[in-house]
Design a protein that fits this description.
Layout (H helix, E strand, L loop, with lengths): L4 E6 L2 H14 L4 E6 L6 H10 L7 E2 L7 H19 L3 E5 L3 H12 L3 E5 L11 H12 L2 E4 L2 H9 L6 E3 L3 H16 L2 H5 L6 E5 L3 H4 L2 H12 L4 E5 L2 H9 L8 E4 L4 H10 L2 E4 L2 H10 L3 E3 L7 H5 L3 E3 L4 H10 L15 H12 L2
Parallel strand pairs: 1-2, 1-4, 2-3, 4-5, 5-6, 6-7, 8-9, 8-11, 9-10, 11-12, 12-13
Helix pairs in contact: 1-7, 1-16, 3-4, 4-5, 7-12, 10-15
Length: about 350
């Protein structure tokens, strides 16, 4: 019997993190063809992650780059159709909620290839977010839906999706457990920046709802500037571009640095006093690291972190950001909300059973 082919589609750094443990598991049972759309295309956003996490070089790098939402997704779709036609995979595996996710799912559906969606069932219920559209559409055309939480299962059930749905846990938790120790051993970021544990806040901003709105971006910078502590801010390339276009200025307490690699980011998170972010993945990693998180959005897909008391939603209101930072300090146990660290193995086994 010939080895089944899984075509994995990634394009942004959160997807590289998610794909790493799954690719290790797939290697035991499948031939994996790794396709990088090039949605994140510079070294700091892409290649360094492949190097640190020991992800092999992609079999295809489409080099799509940036662009408007529709333009970027359309270009991906065109190129992915060609690759899928040449590879003829048994299944296309997509991750998360990016344009690469939707383009991969659409290309597979049109080629009549089975689709598996890792991190299915998440909902912010904010259709103004491009990510919400991507995840809803991808879920509704997927054959296998791998859910990270019980809440994701419930969301899918509300939309009438029950077939092929599996609660496996969160592959990012697998990756967090796998990467944390080598990160502690190899990262030199604390020394390079002159940081001490608990004496700084960490900020990240990348979602279009924030970066593409000058009023929201100005409010975020104002809020960070008023925290009364040093703020380390690795700046996403698009965020830096928009800050420059609008001539926005950050206060002197904000240390704006270039994006950092996986290991440096884990160490910065683990040692921060507080994390302020609009990233879903970082909200979860803050929870696993036991660091309080202030989310710079009005809603989150990761509602469990809020219910558990370790995440608060501040939107972009500077006063809310400051009040939470100064007065809110969560305590207590952090329940294992995202599985047992073996989500990748479960995904591989289900794929194997489904493609015998």
């Amino acid at each position: 019997m010939s080895t089944k082919i899984i075509a994995t589609i990634v394009g942004a750094r959160p997807q590289f993190i998610k794909a790493a443990p799954v690719s290790r598991a797939l290697a035991t049972k499948f031939k994996e063809v790794l396709i990088h759309t090039g949605q994140h295309y510079d070294y700091a956003m892409s290649e360094v992650f492949f190097a640190e996490m020991k992800i092999r070089e992609p079999d295809f790098n489409l080099g799509i780059g940036s662009g408007r939402q529709g333009e970027q997704t359309g270009r991906m779709l065109m190129e992915l159709e060609k690759v899928i036609d040449s590879v003829k995979p048994d299944c296309v595996l997509v991750y998360g909620d990016t344009n690469s996710t939707l383009a991969g799912a659409l290309a597979a559906a049109k080629a009549k290839v089975s689709i598996a969606h890792v991190e299915a069932g998440l909902r912010s219920y904010n259709r103004a977010m491009p990510e919400e559209i991507n995840r809803v559409l991808s879920d509704h055309i997927s054959d296998l839906l791998f859910c990270p939480t019980a809440g994701a299962l419930e969301n899918l059930a509300k939309e009438g999706i029950a077939k092929g749905v599996h609660w496996v846990g969160d592959v990012m938790y697998d990756a967090f457990l796998y990467d944390l120790e080598p990160a502690r051993k190899q990262s030199q970021i604390m020394g390079h920046l002159g940081l001490k544990k608990g004496e700084y806040a960490l900020a990240t901003v990348h979602r279009a709802g924030n970066t593409d709105d000058p009023l929201r971006m100005r409010a975020i910078l104002e809020g960070l500037g008023n925290l009364g502590t040093r703020v380390v801010f690795p700046v996403h390339p698009r965020t830096r571009k928009m800050i420059g276009e609008w001539s926005l200025q950050g206060s002197t307490n904000i240390l704006m640095i270039e994006p950092v690699g996986r290991f440096d980011m884990l160490v910065l998170q683990e040692n921060a006093n507080c994390i302020l972010t609009d990233s879903g993945g970082i909200q979860k990693e803050a929870y696993w690291a036991g660091v309080r998180c202030i989310t710079l959005r009005e809603e989150t897909e990761w509602v469990e972190t809020v219910s558990a008391g370790w995440n608060r939603l501040a939107g972009v209101d500077p006063q809310s950001m400051g009040t939470l930072f100064k007065t809110w300090h969560p305590k207590g146990e952090r329940a294992p909300l995202y599985g047992d660290g073996h989500a990748a193995e479960k995904i591989c086994n289900i794929l194997s059973d489904s493609h015998k």
